[in-house]
Design goal:
6-stranded mixed beta sheet, ATP binding, nucleotide-binding, transmembrane transporter activity, cell division
């Protein structure tokens, strides 16, 4: 599903942001990526998103090699990915339904498919009754649920979540992580970048720890610790 083979990413002088990373993630895994600020976590996610190109090494996602991928191919590749960010990134001038439907419109899903799928996914994230609400009428947790619905509406192979609970209180954070776990149980591979030590330690998932761009540990049922 995901393979990094001796992958490095440098922005210039100094230590690489990602330094000779080797990683294999099987289909259906749930993986936390942890480490202090500047450890390379977000750079790793951007490499998988093809927002950045590696300086060296080989990155293969769902059978596609990212190095050397033609620009015109990138948009189609990203359809295999769902992405959730700390700051939600919702369209403020559109209601919940249209925020989620937007992800289907950009890949030219027929209207009949959108009308069926959007209510389904809003039900999955617990927002069936909020489809007419606008982002500024929702709590932070509800906004992140909308972002999750938008990320999974096209049934991606992989969900990348970059600090998805960073702006949320502990109770809401637990609820969002439970949703991510449910999405994973339905077959989606999930990678979560987080600083939330309590959640990582309570969920007993695979944990990758990064420090100065290096993956320094990879534990099947790991815990969060500061390098």
């Amino acid at each position: 599903m995901i393979d990094l083979i001796d992958v490095s990413k440098s922005y210039g002088q100094g230590l690489p942001a990602v330094n000779h990373a080797n990683l294999h993630v099987d289909k259906g895994e749930f993986v936390f990526i942890v480490g202090s600020s500047g450890s390379g976590k977000s750079t790793l996610i951007k490499l998988l998103l093809k927002e950045l190109d590696s300086t060296s090494g080989t990155t293969i996602v769902s059978g596609e090699k990212l190095e050397g991928m033609k620009h015109r191919r990138v948009a189609k590749y990203r359809r295999k990915l769902g992405v959730v960010f700390q700051d939600f990134r919702l369209l403020k001038d559109r209601d919940v339904y249209e925020n989620v439907a937007f992800a289907q419109r950009v890949v030219n899903r027929p209207t009949r498919v959108i009308r069926k799928r959007v209510p389904e996914v809003l039900q999955e994230v617990g927002l069936a009754g909020k489809y007419k609400a606008y982002p500024d009428e929702l709590s932070g947790g509800e906004q992140q649920r909308v972002a999750l619905a938008r990320a999974i509406v096209n049934r991606p192979d992989i969900l990348l979540a970059d600090e998805p609970t960073g702006n949320l209180d502990p109770k809401t954070s637990e609820e969002i992580m439970k949703l991510l776990e449910e999405i994973n149980e339905r077959g989606t591979t999930v990678l979560v970048v987080t600083h939330n030590k309590e959640i990582v330690n309570s969920m007993k998932k695979r944990v990758l720890t990064m420090h100065n761009g290096v993956i320094i540990s990879d534990e099947k049922e790991g815990e969060y610790y500061e390098a």
